[in-house]
Automatic annotation (TrEMBL):
<feature type="domain" description="EamA">
    <location>
        <begin position="23"/>
        <end position="151"/>
    </location>
</feature>
<dbReference type="InterPro" id="IPR037185">
    <property type="entry name" value="EmrE-like"/>
</dbReference>
<keyword id="KW-0812">Transmembrane</keyword>
<feature type="transmembrane region" description="Helical">
    <location>
        <begin position="235"/>
        <end position="254"/>
    </location>
</feature>
<dbReference type="Pfam" id="PF00892">
    <property type="entry name" value="EamA"/>
</dbReference>
<feature type="transmembrane region" description="Helical">
    <location>
        <begin position="86"/>
        <end position="107"/>
    </location>
</feature>
<dbReference type="InterPro" id="IPR050638">
    <property type="entry name" value="AA-Vitamin_Transporters"/>
</dbReference>
<keyword id="KW-1133">Transmembrane helix</keyword>
<dbReference type="InterPro" id="IPR000620">
    <property type="entry name" value="EamA_dom"/>
</dbReference>
<keyword id="KW-0472">Membrane</keyword>
<feature type="domain" description="EamA">
    <location>
        <begin position="172"/>
        <end position="303"/>
    </location>
</feature>
<feature type="transmembrane region" description="Helical">
    <location>
        <begin position="141"/>
        <end position="159"/>
    </location>
</feature>
<feature type="transmembrane region" description="Helical">
    <location>
        <begin position="203"/>
        <end position="223"/>
    </location>
</feature>
<feature type="transmembrane region" description="Helical">
    <location>
        <begin position="54"/>
        <end position="74"/>
    </location>
</feature>
<feature type="transmembrane region" description="Helical">
    <location>
        <begin position="113"/>
        <end position="134"/>
    </location>
</feature>
<feature type="transmembrane region" description="Helical">
    <location>
        <begin position="21"/>
        <end position="42"/>
    </location>
</feature>
<protein>
    <submittedName>
        <fullName>Carboxylate/amino acid/amine transporter</fullName>
    </submittedName>
</protein>
Length: 315
């Protein structure tokens, strides 16, 4: 076979791998986009509460952790070694405890559309933490985009406060959402770091298994004592099986095949998908202000992704 034919075949294989990774990325992002409306569906509102937010947060991780045990046995995954345990614990603090707990508490008091807009800065938060952890030097434009995106989130929260309460102020639910975003971003960065040493699917599974001594008791203590709507249980099962576990399979595999820089652009779809899902799942109204702020925040993320990142600084 000629060199030209070999090169052509390699190019075709690369294109197929790229398309495959992008479709996997879209699948993963679509699964995650359902998380906010499904969490709201499971926990209910302040006026009509359903499952306790702590049960939703810890129960979903407990169920996913029990399934992860069986999966790790079937695939004969190796046990973590040495310092990997500490990284797994740190990752669990972000993606098992931080994001689910504070998101669940927040969506009891704000609509899922509101939470979707606030969480739109998650890619910026992840990139900023990654730059700090890896001692990289993003261009000035990146930090301008990060500050702009944060300012847009604050402005959106202030405007919603003015509309609902008649005065400017950041609600405590908005603070919980921002804390959830920060902790999730930290967990993503630490999990990605460990993914260079073991298959990414194993990382999230070991994170869930390691969390079981915490998640199982809390889930048992917060088990509902009153009747719960079937729809709320449906939301709980979704966030347990897909948001907490299987979604990471598609997402991490996409990053492994197509590369983080290229595939991560798909994440820009997530806020829009979350907003679209809020209408049919929860019946929430999507107004022009919500769409406008969501577009503006996404624009800052796109801008930040186009900025250069310098080499790591010397220690």
């Amino acid at each position: 076979m000629s060199a030209a034919a070999t090169g052509s075949g390699t190019a075709v294989e690369d294109q197929q791998a790229t398309r495959h990774s992008l479709w996997l990325g879209v699948l993963g992002v679509s699964i995650f986009a359902f998380s906010i409306p499904m969490t709201r569906l499971a926990s209910g509102s302040d006026a009509v509460p359903q499952l306790h937010p702590l049960f939703v947060a810890f129960g979903r991780a407990a169920l996913a952790g029990l399934l992860a045990i069986a999966w790790l046995v079937v695939v004969r995954a190796r046990r973590p070694r040495g310092g990997e345990w500490a990284i797994l614990l740190f990752t669990a603090a972000g993606v098992v405890v931080g994001w689910p707990v504070f998101l669940g508490l927040a969506v009891r008091h704000v609509e899922a559309t509101h939470a979707s807009v606030i969480s739109g800065v998650l890619p910026l938060a992840t990139a900023a933490i990654a730059a700090w952890v890896h001692r990289q030097r993003p261009a000035r434009g990146f930090w301008i985009a990060a500050v702009t995106g944060t300012a847009l989130v604050v402005a959106f929260a202030l405007l919603r406060s003015l509309q609902s309460n008649g005065h400017l102020g950041i609600g405590w639910a908005d603070g919980l959402l921002l804390l959830a975003v920060f902790l999730a971003a930290a967990g993503y960065v630490s999990g990605a770091r460990l993914s260079s040493a073991m298959p990414p699917e194993h990382v999230i599974s070991w994170v869930l298994v390691l969390s079981l001594p915490l998640t199982l008791p809390v889930a048992a203590l917060t088990w509902p004592e009153t009747p719960i709507r079937p729809a709320a249980w449906g939301g709980f099962l979704y966030v347990s099986l897909f948001s907490m576990w299987l979604g990471f399979f598609a997402w991490y595999r996409a990053l492994a095949i197509g590369g983080t820089v290229r595939v991560s652009q798909v994440q820009l779809l997530q806020p829009f998908l979350s907003l679209l899902f809020c209408a049919p799942v929860l019946g929430e109204r999507i107004d022009a202000i919500t769409v406008g702020f969501s577009l503006a925040i996404i624009a800052t993320v796109v801008w930040s992704r186009r900025q250069t990142v310098g080499a790591p600084r010397g220690r």
